[in-house]
Q: What sequence folds into this?
């Protein structure tokens, strides 16, 4: 049996094992997924001096950005759901960056109203959809639907918390981004970077990663296919995520 196979046999089933940390997500409504991993690997961090993760869930994005950013950069993670925030705290405590990440079990609206700290980088994998068919779990409804946090409310909170020259990075379905971008522009946000993601080289994009700022700048557009024509992980996807995925 190969060494790789031995490693696979030891992987825990209650979460996701990365190269430098483990994310338990069995008590979280939204599990670790490709959207979040792409956002955490793609978001520009070189200029970050203080980072905020809105709707942190299991703590995935906070942990990914802790791995990628300078060791002196503090990271705050805000999560409304108590079960998810408790699990995020456990994931952070078990990680190499427990001294840099603080998890708050709080609504982002009240957090924004009561905090004086501002951030150079804010990241979010937010609820995508307007209220629809119930998921069968209030916890999962909260994570999926914009009932408790509309995109307009999210933008207002980010405006309160982001430094004037800071970046706000988010991942959205293509159809949702078509409404989100004009809404952001109405509130004087500008798209600095845009990555269109497709499942395969010959498929249309299904996700968009956005980096927004209040500073005007020409938008840099790019695209990425997760898999190539042979259904293997593409070179671009491997290059972007190789510091995180095991066996890549």
A:
């Amino acid at each position: 049996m190969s060494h790789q196979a031995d490693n696979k046999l030891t992987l825990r089933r209650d979460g996701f094992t990365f190269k430098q940390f483990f994310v338990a997500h069995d008590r979280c409504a939204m599990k670790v997924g490709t959207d979040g991993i792409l956002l955490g690997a793609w978001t520009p961090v070189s200029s970050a001096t203080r980072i905020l993760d809105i709707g942190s869930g299991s703590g995935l994005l906070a942990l990914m950005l802790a791995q990628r950013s300078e060791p002196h950069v503090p990271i705050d993670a805000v999560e409304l759901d108590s079960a998810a925030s408790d699990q995020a705290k456990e994931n952070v405590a078990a990680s190499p960056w427990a001294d840099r990440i603080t998890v708050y079990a709080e609504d982002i609206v009240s957090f924004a109203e009561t905090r004086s700290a501002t951030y150079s980088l804010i990241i979010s994998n937010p609820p995508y959809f307007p209220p629809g068919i119930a998921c069968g779990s209030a916890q999962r409804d909260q994570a999926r639907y914009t009932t408790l946090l509309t995109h307009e409310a999210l933008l207002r909170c980010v405006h309160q918390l982001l430094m004037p020259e800071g970046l706000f990075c988010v991942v959205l379905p293509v159809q949702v981004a078509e409404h989100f971008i004009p809404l952001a522009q109405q509130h004087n946000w500008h798209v600095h970077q845009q990555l269109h993601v497709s499942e395969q080289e010959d498929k249309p994009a299904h996700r968009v990663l956005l980096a927004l700022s209040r500073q005007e700048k020409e938008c840099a557009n790019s695209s990425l296919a997760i898999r190539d024509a042979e259904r293997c992980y593409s070179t671009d996807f491997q290059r972007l995520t190789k510091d995180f995925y095991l066996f890549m």
